[in-house]
Design goal:
The chain is α+β, with helices and mostly antiparallel strands and 465 residues long. The chain contains 16 helices and 21 strands. It folds into three domains: 2-12 and 324-461, no CATH class; 21-176 and 268-300, no CATH class; 186-263, no CATH class. Helix 2 (79-95) crosses helix 8 (286-293) and helix 14 (419-430) crosses helix 15.
Amino acid sequence: MSLRPATLLLWLAPLVAAPREVTVRLYWLHPPAEMPQLSWKGPLEVKRQGGRLLLTVRMPLEEYVAGVLAGESSTFTSQEALKAMAVAARTYAVRHLGRHRWEGFDFCDTTHCQDLRLAALSGRFRAIAEATESELLWYQGSPAATYYHRHCGGVTEAAHNLWPDVRAPYLREQADTFCVATGRGDWHSQVLKEDLGRALGIGPLEVLRRTSSGRVAELRAGRKPMTAPAFEQALGRALGWDLVRSSRYEIIDRGDRLVFQGYGFGHGVGLCQTGAQQRGAQGHSYRQILEFYYPGTVLGVSAQGFAWALVAGERVELASTRVREDQWLIALADRLLKEAESRAGFPLTFRPRLKVYPSVAAFRDSTGEPGWVAASTLGHTIRLQPLPVLRSTGKLESTVLHEMLHLLIESRAHRDLPLWFREGLALYLADAQWPKLREEARVRALVDRHGRAAVMNWLVRGLPP
């Protein structure tokens, strides 16, 4: 049986959700001759710096996603591949919101964040953003790290090989035959040793170690080791970003110069745009494309994919995504269950479960309750907002006690007992300091007129005529 509890207010509970708008810094050497018709007004700030025009604008999230599609996926012909990219771009933005917070905006318009091309916006890209509106990829209740790249060369890279701090098992190495269906994306470049030494101050280069996907992991630059990402960043900043297009390369010494010979384009982590385009062309849906490149994530508009753990106490069970932080609730709940039984005058005959949600948004989206409701009971389970939120209101103990009383009342309630009586009886037995509600006043009036014993007897027998 589902029971909607009395209104337990959390006046200051925050509602955590994807933003409706983002702020973006646009770097223009020359403003575009013709801007598209935009659905937002701005800019917030205009200034000049080193001959460039800098604009800070606020735009709807979906407009930003459409602009990123124009910059990152303009050559896509598959609608489904574009939809997959829209979800990846939106999720990336939500996860990395505020990347330039200390500069006063969320994102820049370059590939440091995502390549935003407002001048190339079209109805096609807006339609794709609208078709996937608000959809995100989730992992354990949080937006996934949806990295993507141009061409993986046949094998994607595990994220931890590039960024040891990124713990994302869905960003793993796997073969991608669709990517190489039209070729490996071979490339080669060369750089004079003199230019390399002058720009980076390093001597001969030698590959020391590769990842299991075949990408360069570490080099010897002169006498010291250097990670491949650090070398590629330094080389790109000094001599140009097209010299080393991916980490899948060999270094060939040609006397006065070094030749880089490789294939693929980009870091190789996450969604391969070339492979996604081919998959879409072969009839794969955008959901199937996302499932392949981000295995283990869940597509949805609200928090999903939680990894719940269950811990048993003396009388209760705790379900939480953060058991280590929340397990102290078990002892408190055991005590409050005994208190509730004492107030009701009879024992609970089953083991209740307390399910603590990791965010207000997750509680709201999973239970259907508004964000200002502290808890609700469904069957044998008490569903709670995050414990820090409940503790901050000073209502944690009274909330758990109230829900324990609901469990006791529902375990013996007559099938025809009206909801107002159940609600009022729980509030009366809790004797809480919440604002008095009409249901409690009605039950209290019955107790004053007929006595507590008679009213408790009606719980089982039903209200008299």
